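Operator note (shift B, R.M.): manual run for histidine kinase requested after the automated queue skipped it. Running by hand, logging everything below so the morning shift can see what happened. Input copied straight from the record, untouched. If output looks odd, do not overwrite the archive copy; leave it for review.
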Amino acid sequence: MKTKLVRGPERFSAMYVKLKQAILDRKTAETKLKKSVAHYDQLLKQSHLMQEHLRHLSRQIILAHEEERKNISRELHDEIGQILTGINIRLAALRNETSDNTRTIKKKIVTAQRLVEKSMKQIHRFARELRPAVLDDMGLMPALHAHVKDFSKQTHIPVYFKSFTIGKISVVNNLQRTAFYRVAQEALINVAKHAKASRVDFRLEKSDGCLIMKIKNNGKSFQVEHVLRARKRERLGLLGMRERMEMIGGQFTIESKAGQGTTVCAKAPLKFPKQNSKDNQRQKGFK
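Run finished. Output pasted below as returned.
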């Protein structure tokens, strides 16, 4: 049996061919990797653009929704309210003109008046819930006070309102007013529906050029991440509050711990008029 010996030059030539092929393979792999990275970078940019587009559409929907609520609220308050008021006045006049011999008719008129008055109260309540006129006419603070008082009256849950602000929050624009008000409204709705709380602490303060609103209840806790992943209305409520605060360059957080209740915090940068006086502190318990 003969063994073929590979001489030195031939052996080095074979090694060179293998090395050259390995280098070519590596360069090919690097080229493919670069193309792959560039492709994924492009996909990432497209994803970011799509997210920004969706965020913009979401904000436009919120703004359009808010404007529609405002219009419907005005229609209910002005048009329907005036019609019912006119009906009530006519019924009152008719009752006064009815003779004493028609007591049955008087009773029916009084019953009709009560129904009209009840309808007027319901319509005014619907109008306030859609878009309270006080929010546009008088500003954020009076609107929050009115809503908190009405909430306590309906739910019998006391809300202790504290505000640490310099003067009036007159520099808050319409978008900022609406964002803070809607977050407060949604937070209190969740308290009434789910928390089973016996007390709510509502705090509004200015700190480092920001307006900070905290709403804490002593009711049941819940797993925030679990709710955010769930396909329920509560998830939409939390996401809606977060979206509203992001629209005004703010932040929204929620903490919920067993035995400590739940705290909703909304924070956004604002400009306040400079004053030399100390911060005014007001505390009210609405029962």
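Quick read of the result: Residues 272-287 have pLDDT under 50 and may be disordered. Residues 12-131 form one domain.
Leaving this for review. - R.M.
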